[in-house]
Amino acid sequence: MIIYYNTYDQIENKDDLTITMGNFDGLHLGHQQLINRVLRYTDTKHAIITFDPHPSEVLRKQPFRTLTQKRDKIELFSNFPLDYAFIVKFNEDFSKLNVDEFIAFLKKISVKRLVIGRDARFAYRGLGRIEDLKKYFVVDVLDDLVYNHTRVSTTYIKDFLLQGDLGSARKLLNRHYQISGHVVHGHKIGRVIGFPTANIDYDNYYLPKNGVYYVKVLVRDKWYHAMANIGNNPTLNYSYEKRLEINILDFSEDIYGEKILITFLHFLRPEYKFGSKNALIHQLKKDEETVRTLSNH
């Protein structure tokens, strides 16, 4: 797969293309259905067009939490036999392309066919419609993928994560939810109470529900069982900003500054404010027992 990452006016291609396009945040089952349909066509090369950063971040001029970062999407795209992945730098110039200008961009990179969902929109303020594309391209429109009578979408998956329903999120993603980030210095309160934690800079990732989780973490190419806490530390050392902290079982190495991958497996309990430090420690010991039990299954 050849990856192009540039502003829209710098991207070039001469091969005839069948494409699908969108944000593809999470690359969930609905997105995977689009890609698999693209791959069915044998008369052109196969490509995907996506955008970075997320358009909502540019248009709202504030951070936007996503299920996947650019590097994650590239890795997920690589699981499919695509010929090209065009990652368009989403900026104000691109956001202001009108319908005709957006179509001219698609023509310039030799798009011949588009595979899109029935609600697809494009160009400035989403004014472009499927009917506009059909004037210039072959357009294959797919019906919505539905789960529990609801269209599969990134927002739907975020709702499940917000409920701590990792199982439903996993079904729609076709994989466990994962976050990667660098280990940063914290206040080291966990070390004082016997549960040292790695504080994770989670960037713009969307965080699941506040609480304690059984996770697996990839550190230096090796997987470990761990407990994760998402929240504000209401019992000791309250934090206004949400934190993601990992207590890796049977692990004592210094990993400050290193990047680790966290795979969310089970939601154990909500985050509580305990009446004392000892009450917190007692609960953490019970959480660790639960994690060790789960890790043996």
Descriptive account of the structure:
The chain has 10 helices and 14 strands. The chain is α/β, with parallel strands linked by helices and about 300 residues long. The mean pLDDT is about 95. The strands form 3 sheets. It has a 6-stranded parallel β-sheet with strand order 1-4-3-2-5-6, with helices on both faces. A 6-stranded antiparallel β-barrel has the order 9-10-13-12-11-14. It has 2 domains: about 1-145, Rossmann fold (3-Layer(aba) Sandwich), CATH 3.40.50.620; about 175-295, Elongation Factor Tu (Ef-tu), domain 3, CATH 2.40.30.30.
Keywords:
297 residues; Rossmann fold; Elongation Factor Tu (Ef-tu), domain 3; six-stranded parallel sheet; 28% helix; elongated
Summarize the structure.
By secondary structure, the chain is of the alpha/beta class. The chain is built from ten helices and 14 strands.
Helix content: 25-40%
The sequence of SSEs as H and E is: EEHEHHEHHEHEEEHHEHEEEEEH
Biggest sheet overview: 6 strands, parallel
Question: Biggest sheet: strands side by side, in what order?
Answer: 1-4-3-2-5-6
Q: Roughly what fraction of the amino acids lie in strands?
A: 25-35%
Bulk shape: elongated
CATH topology group of the largest domain: Rossmann fold
Query: Structural class of the helices, strands and pairings?
Result: alpha/beta
Mean pLDDT: 93
Domain unit count? 2
Q: End-to-end distance, in Å?
A: 37 Å
CATH class categorisation of the largest domain:
Alpha Beta
Are there runs of 5+ residues with pLDDT below 50, and where?
Answer: none
